[in-house]
Specification:
Layout: H1 4-9, E1 15-16, E2 38-48, H2 57-74, E3 83-84, E4 97-103, E5 106-111, H3 126-139, E6 154-162, E7 165-166, E8 172-173, E9 181-189, E10 191-192, E11 195-198, H4 206-211, E12 215-223, E13 229-236, H5 247-263, E14 268-270, E15 272-274, E16 277-279, E17 281-289
Parallel strand pairs: 3-9
Antiparallel strand pairs: 1-11, 2-6, 2-9, 4-5, 4-6, 7-8, 10-15, 11-14, 12-13, 12-17, 15-16
């Protein structure tokens, strides 16, 4: 967990908040965005893993490739041609993630994490088609071996769809994924992500300071159209593969978490804009605590 010096250095900056894979709250304005605000982009499938599971990434990439080819076929494309998926998937339903777990003595399983669940069963959601492609690949008998030396009988990685961001001038910000695999194309509206414009007033907890504790707190929450955090939507984001802390370290972390939640209402944001529509949007923000 970390906080002080880096925090002070960035106080005067507008800091983009992690929002690319986060849901856009439904809004009727989205259906009035003019055609001139859209640009066709390639959409990629990407495999990711947290630090505890990085050894699985080479195998996860092979699994993702099979899923990508199956997803292409479901949408009318093939290995050499990407389908235009606009008639099948809604452009504003391409967020979210599927978590795939490999087992030593069983077939892979998968789940939709809570932050992705609200749209996962919609008929025109990208997650609906992604889950179908995963199901078909697993049914064919394909799996990935758990790397030698891995602890436990299972290991988990994520699969998600990402695409270049379209700016207001319709220029693209390329995808920075590790090994993104092209799957289909889609016309999407330009967007401006939520930006943190005023850091919250957060006090370093005295108990944590007395222990010399440092660390990170990661929260997900919605930023409303007025640029404020909706405190009713705040959720702690704990790494799925990480064990919970115990003893003094747990108390220090809990103190950090309470300090962030108390201070978050004082933060100010520049809200998300999609094709000219100011939007509510869920984001992920990490708060760093570090004793100088």
């Amino acid at each position: 967990m970390k906080f002080a010096l880096a925090f002070l250095v960035t106080l005067l900056l507008a800091v983009p908040v992690a929002a690319q894979k986060q849901p856009i709250e439904p809004d009727s304005c989205l259906y009035r965005i003019p055609a001139s605000a859209f640009k066709r982009v390639p959409v990629f499938l990407e495999a990711t893993a947290d630090s505890a599971s990085r050894a699985i990434l080479p195998g996860a990439d092979l699994f993702a490739q099979s899923v990508a080819f199956r997803l292409r076929a479901l949408l009318g494309g093939n290995e050499s041609k990407l389908a235009e998926a606009d008639s099948t998937i809604d452009w504003n339903r391409m967020w979210g993630e599927v978590r795939v777990t490999l087992h030593k003595n069983d077939a892979p399983t998968w789940v939709i994490p809570d932050w992705s669940s609200s749209d996962s069963d919609h008929a025109r959601s990208a997650l609906t088609f992604l889950q179908k492609a995963i199901q078909d690949v697993v049914a064919s008998g394909e799996t990935v071996a758990i790397p030698d030396g891995s602890l436990g009988d299972s290991i988990t990685f994520g699969l998600s769809l990402v695409h270049p961001r379209v700016m207001k001038d319709l220029k693209l910000i390329p995808v920075k994924g590790r090994q993104p695999i092209p799957v289909f194309t889609m016309a999407v509206a330009w967007e401006k992500s939520v930006e943190l414009t005023k850091f919250p007033h957060i006090v370093y907890p005295e108990f944590s300071r007395s222990l010399g504790a440092i660390g990170n707190v990661m929260l997900s929450f919605a930023v409303d159209k007025q640029g404020r955090a909706d405190m009713e939507t705040v959720k702690e984001m704990w790494p799925p593969a990480a064990k919970r802390l115990t003893g003094d370290l747990r108390q220090a972390y809990d103190a950090f978490l309470r300090a962030v939640i108390r201070g978050l209402p004082s933060a100010r944001f520049s809200p998300a804009v999609i094709g000219g529509c100011v939007m509510n949007q869920k984001v992920i923000q990490t708060f760093h605590f570090k004793i100088p």
